[in-house]
Amino acid sequence: MLKLTRALFAPAIRNSRAARKANLLAKPLPSAQPMAAEDIDQTAELLENAPTREEQQVAAYSVHPDMPRHLRPTNFVRLSDFKDKSWQKLPRKPDPFGPGRAASEARDAFVQLNIDPLHESTNARMLAHFVTDMGRIRKRAMTGLTWRSQRRMAKAVRRAKMMGLMPILRRDNPYDDTKDGLARRYY
């Protein structure tokens, strides 16, 4: 059976790697003399100084061992790899809608003291804290009030402006009672 198989695959076996290797081993070595002591020392020195497999892999994958992984010669390079990434570490922006429910309830004085802001529409001194220098009502992100308190406080500020207790286009300093030499009273 073995002879039959070899006869069928003889051309393939002649060209195979194993056949070529067997032919090389069958040939006699050019010099069958034993190695000299100097040759043995040189060979041992070469083997000691030869790089390890890990060192060869590192050398193959990067020009410099400290080079970042995304800049190695085997990887594609994008323009974004060369951007300064220090700007990406900026702190998060504050929430544009203000704090969440638990945080705003803990901070909201109206909720803590159980006060309705609409009942304070005549207290212009208190409402002045919720108005900008241009006379606009501050956003909830700046006041930190709950949604309900913010709505009712804004309605109280609009009422106070329409009653004439607060200026419409600017913010009065509620603590400056001697403006222009005249005392102001806030009811």
Write the layout of secondary structure elements.
Blueprint (H helix, E strand, L loop, with lengths): L1 H7 L1 H5 L2 H10 L10 H13 L3 H9 L39 H7 L1 H4 L11 H4 L12 H4 L3 H17 L24
Overview of the molecule:
With about 190 residues, this protein is mostly helical. The chain has a domain at about 100-170: 30s Ribosomal Protein S18 (Irregular). Helix content is about 45%, strand content about 0%. The chain is built from ten helices and no strands. The chain starts with a helix and ends in a 24-residue tail after the last helix.
Descriptive keywords:
187 residues; mainly alpha; 30s Ribosomal Protein S18; 10 helices; rod-shaped
Can you give me a brief rundown of this structure?
The chain has 10 helices and no strands.
Give the oligomer, counting copies of the same chain as homo and different chains as hetero: single chain
Q: Which stretches are low in confidence, meaning pLDDT under 50 for 5 or more residues running? A: none
- Helical content stands at 40-55%
CATH class of the domain at 101-171: Few Secondary Structures
Q: Indicate the CATH architecture of the domain at 101-171.
A: Irregular
- Global shape: rod-shaped
Determine Rg (CA atoms, Å): 44 Å
Q: Remind me, CATH topology of the domain at 101-171?
A: 30s Ribosomal Protein S18
Q: Kindly, what is the distance between the CA atoms of the first and last residues, rounded to a whole number of angstroms? A: 118 Å
Tell me about the biggest sheet?
none
Contiguous helical run count: 10
Q: What do the pLDDT scores average to?
A: 76
Strand content: under 5%
Structural class category: mainly alpha
How would you name the CATH homologous superfamily of the domain at 101-171?
A: Ribosomal protein S18
